[in-house]
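Retro notes (design track)

What went well: tokenization of the new backbones is finally stable.
What didn't: we kept losing track of which sequence belonged to which structure.
Fix going forward: every design gets posted as structure first, then sequence, in one message. First example under the new rule, 340 residues:
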């Protein structure tokens, strides 16, 4: 078992999850052909492993790939990231994509707990301040303390703390009040939806419409504020189900825009703040899924090119190293038996 790259001689690293093959931080495998590569993270070359070390390791990689939720597949290749950090590249027919509530349960659960703690602390602080002011100045002091807290909260509500920068390069700022005016609507062109935002203004007639990647930037900036309370496990599961019903995240985003007519605010359709909690959570999840899909697809394209080159070399290397009988058995196992 080697531990350095055959091409650049750099260390290949180690993993703690493939017991039969603890070498490498990115393993590529083809279960049908019985091949296993260690992908060097330095030069990105694929190092074919010795034949005697492969079979059990390939089976372990297949099992890990199926159990790993964070994965993406194209026509010929799949990529999964294990929680330990090991990356698995699976060659062959992709598995059916799936959404799992546990991917988001911790994230939205923590957000909910933080909000509860924050609001509880604010309430206790306000009650304590009013009590102290009341003891010192009577009813008038308590009233002044209460009004002061009210104005501080109002200032925070109106202060432009949410930011995003569209492709025109000009930074936009929104307050929590302005975020409540965000709307999503379908378009008449190839873009799946457009989004209306109200940066730094109170007059709804001055709102701006954004499409394409800019629309996604608006949603990425505003949804965490609109979903500040997070969600219980039941709410998160309902959100995941809504995405699963559409098959994938992009279809859900398009469907939300088409069906936005029913979410009215001040008579205008498509209001995000008027959407049920599970729908808004699903919208934020769908954006995460799409961002991840884009990143992985860009990487999958490069991986597929490297795999095709490595496969040509592996096919030659395997047959050179094996006696004729063993080569025929290897062909049978990979589904490429010789013609009669």
């Amino acid at each position: 078992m080697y531990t350095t790259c055959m091409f650049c001689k750099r260390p290949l690293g180690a993993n703690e999850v493939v017991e039969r093959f603890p070498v490498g931080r990115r393993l590529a495998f083809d279960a049908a052909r019985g091949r296993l590569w260690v992908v060097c993270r330095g030069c990105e070359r694929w190092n074919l492993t010795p034949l005697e070390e492969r079979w059990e390791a390939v089976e372990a990689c297949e099992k890990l790939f199926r159990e790993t939720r964070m994965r993406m597949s194209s026509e010929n290749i799949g990529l999964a990231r294990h929680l330990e950090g090991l990356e698995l590249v699976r060659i062959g027919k992709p598995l059916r994509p799936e959404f799992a509530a546990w991917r988001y349960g911790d994230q939205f659960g923590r957000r909910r707990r933080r909000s509860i703690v924050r609001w509880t602390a604010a309430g206790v602080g306000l009650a304590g301040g009013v009590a102290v002011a009341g003891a010192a100045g009577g009813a008038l002091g308590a009233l002044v303390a209460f009004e002061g807290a009210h104005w501080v909260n109002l200032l925070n509500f109106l202060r432009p703390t949410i930011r995003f920068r569209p492709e025109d390069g000009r930074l936009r700022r929104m307050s929590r009040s302005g975020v409540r005016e965000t709307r999503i609507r379908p378009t008449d062109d190839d873009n799946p939806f457009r989004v209306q935002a109200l940066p730094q203004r109170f007059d709804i007639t001055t709102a701006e419409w954004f499409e394409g990647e800019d629309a996604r930037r608006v949603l990425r900036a505003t949804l965490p504020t609109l979903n500040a309370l997070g969600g219980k496990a039941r709410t998160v599961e309902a959100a995941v189900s809504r995405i699963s019903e559409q098959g994938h995240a992009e279809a859900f985003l398009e469907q939300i825009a088409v069906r936005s007519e029913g979410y009215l605010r001040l008579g205008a359709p498509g209001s995000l703040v008027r959407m049920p909690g599970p729908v808004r959570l699903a919208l934020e999840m769908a954006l995460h899924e799409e961002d991840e899909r884009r990143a992985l697809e860009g990487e999958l394209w490069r991986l597929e090119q490297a795999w095709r080159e490595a496969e040509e070399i592996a096919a030659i290397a395997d047959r050179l190293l094996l006696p004729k009988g063993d080569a025929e058995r290897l062909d049978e196992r990979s589904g490429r038996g010789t013609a009669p």
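Added context from the reviewer: The radius of gyration is 27 Å.
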